[in-house]
## 1
Amino acid sequence: MTPTITAFAASPDRGKGLARDMRVRWALEEVGQPYQVRLVTFAEMKQPAHVALHPFGQIPTYEEDGLTLFESGAIVLRLAEQHTGLLPQDPHARMRAISWMFAALNTVEPSIVERSMAWLFEREQPWYASRIVMLDTRVRQRLDELSRRLGDGPWLDGDFSAGDLLMASVLLRLGSSGIVDAYPNLAAFLARATARPAYRRAFAAQEAVFLASQPPAG
Amino acid sequence: MTPTITAFAASPDRGKGLARDMRVRWALEEVGQPYQVRLVTFAEMKQPAHVALHPFGQIPTYEEDGLTLFESGAIVLRLAEQHTGLLPQDPHARMRAISWMFAALNTVEPSIVERSMAWLFEREQPWYASRIVMLDTRVRQRLDELSRRLGDGPWLDGDFSAGDLLMASVLLRLGSSGIVDAYPNLAAFLARATARPAYRRAFAAQEAVFLASQPPAG
C-alpha cells in the first residue's frame, strides 16, 4: 500500500522546504518509496479527525496499512528500517547514525527554532535586539561543536544517513541568516545534502504544493 | 561487558533527577542492566577526551564493548532494542512508542527547556515578566494536547514504554512550577512513573552522587 503523509495546504514558509513534511518527503525519495500527500489547512489540523492522527495537531503524519505515526523523526526512522539507504547495516554504525538523528532534533534544532520563534513573535518587542544576540550565541555554540566534529568529512559518520538528512534539514532552517556561511565545512555539507537528487525531488514536490495554493498572477 | 555512562560530578539541579543521565539510569534499571558511572566536571566535559565521546560536550554518554553513543534518546532506544520491557514486540506498536519518544524530545521538551532557560538567564531582565507569560502559554498548549490524548489511560499507548519514560522525564523538568498540577491526569501519570521501582533506584543513585559531592556538614 502506498503510504500517505500530511502536509500544509499553504505552507507558512512559502514553499522554501522548511516545513517538517520536507524531511519525510526527502526520506521517501531517498529510499524510492512512492507516497501520497493529503493537504490540511491550519483549521483542519486542530480538528478531531487530524488530532486522532497527530496528538499535537501538527504535520506531518504518516499512514500505511494498519499503522499511523506522527513526529518526523519517528517517520524517518520507520522508512530507514523498512528500506536500505538511510541507516548502515552494521548494528553499531546504525546506532551511531541514530544518535545523530536525536542530536539534530533534541540538541541542535531547539536553539534554531527558538531563534525563529523570537523573529516571528518578538521582533516588535523592545527586548528583541538584546535577546537575538543571546540566541545567536547559543546557535553558534552548537554549530562550533558540529563543525569541529564534521571536520573534513562529507557526512557526520561514514556514509550519508538519516542522521545527516535530519541535521541538514535542521540547519536549513537558519535560511538567509548567514550563520551557516561562517562555517565553510557546514555550508559544504548543506550544499552536498541539497544537491542530492532525492532532496531536489522532495523540494520540487513541496514547492509545487505552495505554488498551486497561490492565486493566479495578473 | 558492563556499560559505562557519564554523569555530572556535581549536577546543577542538586540531585533532583533532572539531568539527562537520569533518563538513561532509569532505562537501565527498567531492563535490569547493571552499569558503571564515570563522573565528569564541567571543565572535563569540554575537553578533547570527552568531546571525542560527545560532540556537544554534554552528558550522558554510553559506552559498551566497541560502541560509543551520545544523546539520551538514542541511548534509551539502544537499551530498549537490546532488552525487553521498554518497547512492545508488535512492530506497529513499537513504532508508535518510538513516535512518543520523539514527541517527548522534539515537541514537548523544547518549550519546557526554553522556559527553564528564561528563568536561568533572563529573570533579571526587564522583559522577563512579559516573556514568561508567553512561554507558559506555549507549555500549556502542549500539555493541553498531551492531556487530551492521555485521557484516562495509565500510559500514552498501551503498556509502559520508552515513550512514557522520556515523556515523564521531560514533564518532571517543570518541577515546582505547578503547571502540571493543573492537569490531574498528567499529574497522575507522573506519580505512576515516579513510583516505579526502577525510577526510584535510578533517582537514589543520582542523588547519592550529588550528596557525595557536597562538603560534610558542621
## 2
Amino acid sequence: MSMSPAMKIHEARGVSDMEKFFNPSSVVIFGASNAKFNLGAMICKALRDAVQYPGQVYAVNSAGDDVAGAKGCQALEDIREDIDLAVIITPASVIPGLIQKCGARGIRNVIIESSGFSEKGEEGRKLQNEIDRLARFYALRIIGPNCLGVLDIERRFCCMYGAEEIVSVLVRHPGPVSYILQSGGVAELVGERLMDDRLGVNKMVCIGNKSDVNEADLIDYFDTDHTEVICVYLENVKDGRKLMRAVKKTRKPVLVYKSGKSEAGRAAALSHTAGMAQNDAVFDGACRQAGIIRLQSIEELHALPKMFTRMPLLSGNRIAVFTTSGAFGSVGADLLAGTNLVMAEFSDETKSRLSRIPGVFNAANPVDIGPAPPEIYLEIYNILLTSGEVDGMLHLAGMWRDFVQDVMQALVGFCRRQRKPAALYAYNSMGKLLAARQEKELPVFYTAEEAVRALEVSYQQYLYLDKKEEPLWKP
Amino acid sequence: MSMSPAMKIHEARGVSDMEKFFNPSSVVIFGASNAKFNLGAMICKALRDAVQYPGQVYAVNSAGDDVAGAKGCQALEDIREDIDLAVIITPASVIPGLIQKCGARGIRNVIIESSGFSEKGEEGRKLQNEIDRLARFYALRIIGPNCLGVLDIERRFCCMYGAEEIVSVLVRHPGPVSYILQSGGVAELVGERLMDDRLGVNKMVCIGNKSDVNEADLIDYFDTDHTEVICVYLENVKDGRKLMRAVKKTRKPVLVYKSGKSEAGRAAALSHTAGMAQNDAVFDGACRQAGIIRLQSIEELHALPKMFTRMPLLSGNRIAVFTTSGAFGSVGADLLAGTNLVMAEFSDETKSRLSRIPGVFNAANPVDIGPAPPEIYLEIYNILLTSGEVDGMLHLAGMWRDFVQDVMQALVGFCRRQRKPAALYAYNSMGKLLAARQEKELPVFYTAEEAVRALEVSYQQYLYLDKKEEPLWKP
C-alpha cells in the first residue's frame, strides 16, 4: 500500500475530527446480530431505548437481519446513505478488512470495541499495528480497540454495551461533567455510582488500548464543548508531552486517577490495556507541573466533580469548621491537618458575634452548636462567610431531618453569592440528603474525608489558575 | 457526708454492675414531660414504639403527667415498685439532688444524659465532681453525663432520644456487633449507616464525659455477652492501663477510632467531652501492644465489623486478587502494596488449571476473566482457595446483575468451609449487592479500599491472637 493523498490531511488532525464520534447523523454497527448475548445488539437496543438516538442505525451481520430497530444489511456496500461513524464489535481477525472498507467508503470515525489486540501478546500486537497502518493510510480516527465506546448525553448517542440500565438514568440528567476512561470496568463503576450521585454527565468515552485517539485528543475536544470538569482514568500514558500540552491549554479542571502506582499494580495494568505504565514519581511531577489534579481513589472520579460545578473555587486556605457534634469538629480538624488548608482563626469580634447566638457551645473554630432552628444556622453561615477571616467552610453538621435539605439549599445559594465554597456533609440525615443530592442537585459528600478532599482539590485548581493567569494586556 | 457502708461494696465493682444498664426490669426517666420537643418524652416514645420495651417505665415531671405510655409521677417517692435504672435528662443543676434520692432509694444504675458538666468550664467541673462524690458514696454506677445513653437490641431497651427512626430499623436485625461511642453525633452517623449496612447490632452505648463508667468497663462487659466484635469511638482515654487490661483480656476484636490525632483536633475534642486527649503516638503504641485494631476513618466503625462476623480470620498474608476488569486488578495490587499483605504467587500447576478455564485473560495474580456464567466463577474460587498458595481473596469483580447475589452467597459459604476469607466488592452491580447485603447478610464492601482494609484488619487480629495463644497445658 502506497502513500495516500489522505495522509496529508491526516497531519492536520484536530479537535474537529472528534465531533462525529459523539454526534454522528448515522452509524453502522459491525457485528450486531440477533444471536443470544450479542453485544452489538445491546448497542442497537441502547440507541433505540436508553438514549432514543435520533439518527440512522445500520446493523451489519451475515444474515442481514434488522436488530432492535437498526436496519439490517449483510455488508457495508448495501448501505447507500452517508455514514458518519462505524462501530466494530466483531472477532478481531476480520477487523483490518472492515477498516479498509470503511476507509475506502470515506468513513473517517471508527470505534473498535472488540478485544484481541495489543493486550493479547505478539499476535494481537501485530493486528493492532495493522489497523494503525490502515488508519493512517485512510486518515481515519480510531477509538479503541478493546473499549466500551462512547456516550453523549447531550446529543443522545451511545455505543456502550451492557450499560442500558445506567444509561437510561444518566440520560435524564445532562450536565457538565465529562469522562475519559481507559477501562470499561471503571466506566461501569462510575456509571453505577452516578445513578445515585447525579452530577450531570456530558460525555463519557472509554479509550481502551488507545491505538490512535488518546486522553490528550479528548481533553482538547472537551475544552471546546459544554464540559466544565474533565475526569480521567488512566493505566498508562503513551505521549506525556501531548497530555501535558492539552491540560495546560484548558482552564477546566482535569482530575486524573492513575492505577499502577505500585510495581504489582503496573504489572497488572500491563495485561489489561497493554501500555507500559510509567514510573509513578515521574507522573506525579508531571501532574504538578501541568496542573492535573491527581485523585487518591477511583471513587473520587464521581465524588469530587460536584465541588467544581456547584460551588465557587476556594480562593484561600482558611477553613471554618461548622458542626453540631464536637466529635466531628475534632475529626474535621484532624483531616484538615493532613492538607495545606488551615483552621481559620477568628477575631474577637467574630467570636463575640458567634457567642451571642443561643445554643453555640464553641464560638471558636470549630464552631459547635446544639440543635437549633434553620435561621440560626443561616445566621452563623452569614457571620462566618462575611467575616473576611474565612475562605471556605467544612460543614460537618447533623440537623433535624425536616429541614436539612432546605438549610443546605439556602447555604449553596449563599456560598455562590459570597463566592466562597462550603463542602457539605451531614452525619445524621444522610438518607434525606442523598435524596436531595439527586432531586435538588445539592453538592453533598458521602463522608467527611470526601468533603475535605473537595476543599483541597478546589484550592489546588484555584492556585493553578492563579499562577497561570496572564496579564490582561500585553504591550 | 461521711464514709458510707456502700463504699466498701463499691471497691468490688465489676461486670455485674453493668447488667441493669442494658436489661432493667423497670426504669424511671427524670425530666420526661409532655412539653414540646421534650427529650425525655422522646425516650418514652422510643421505649414504647421503637423497641417495645417489655419493662415498666415511669416519667417524673412537675405535673406528674403520663408521657407516651410511661406512668407519670411528680417525684421518685411516688413510685412504690422497685426501680432498676434511673435515666436523668433535666437541667444539670438539679442532678446532684436526684442522684442523692436515687442513692438513698437503692437505685444502683444511673444514666445522666444532660449536658452542662465538665465540658462547660469551671462551674460544670464542680458539678461533675459533686455527682462523682455522690456516686462513690452510694455505690452507684453512672453512665454519662452529656451522653445519649444506651440501646440493647437483644433485650429491647433504649434510652436514646432523637433516634427513633434508626432504632426502629436496627431492632429488626439483632446481631453480634456492639458499640461504645464517646459522642452522640458518632452514634447518629453509625446508626444512619447501619440502616443500610445491616451488621446486626447487639448493644450501643454513648459514654459522653464518662465520669464513672468508661470504655474499659464496657469492654469487660461485652466480653461476657453475645457480642462478637467491639467497636469504639474515643476522644480521650482517662485510664490507659485499665483500657489495655480490658482489651488484652478479651479474644474478641476491639476496633477503635480515636479523634484528636492532630493538635487542632485535640483542642476541638477538649471543648466537646472535656477529656484531655493524649499524644497520638503514645496511643498508637498502646494499641499495638494491647491488640487494639486502630481504625483510619469513622466510616470503618460500620464498614469493617462484618469481616469478623461473617468471614473466617485471615491466617496468612498471601492474597489472590480476582477481577473481571484489568483496571481493578491493577487497583487491587496498588492497594495491597500499601499493607503487610502480598500478592500470592501461583504455582505453574495453579496457573495451568486457571488458564484452561474459558474466558480467563490472565491466569497469574490478579486473575482476570471476561463475562462468564456462575459455575465458572465458582470453579476459579475453588482453584484459588484450595491451592494451598492463597490465604485469602480480594474479590473486585463485576458480574451480571441477575446472578451476582447468588454467586456471592455461594462464595461466602465456600469461604467458611475452607476457613479462608474473601473481601467482597463488585464495581458494576453495587445496587443489587447492597440490597443483598441487607437481605442476605452478605459481607459486601462499598469500596475497593474498604475491602482491602477488611483483609488487613482480619490479618491483624489473627496475628494478635496467634501471638497471645497460650500453651494448651501448663505444668
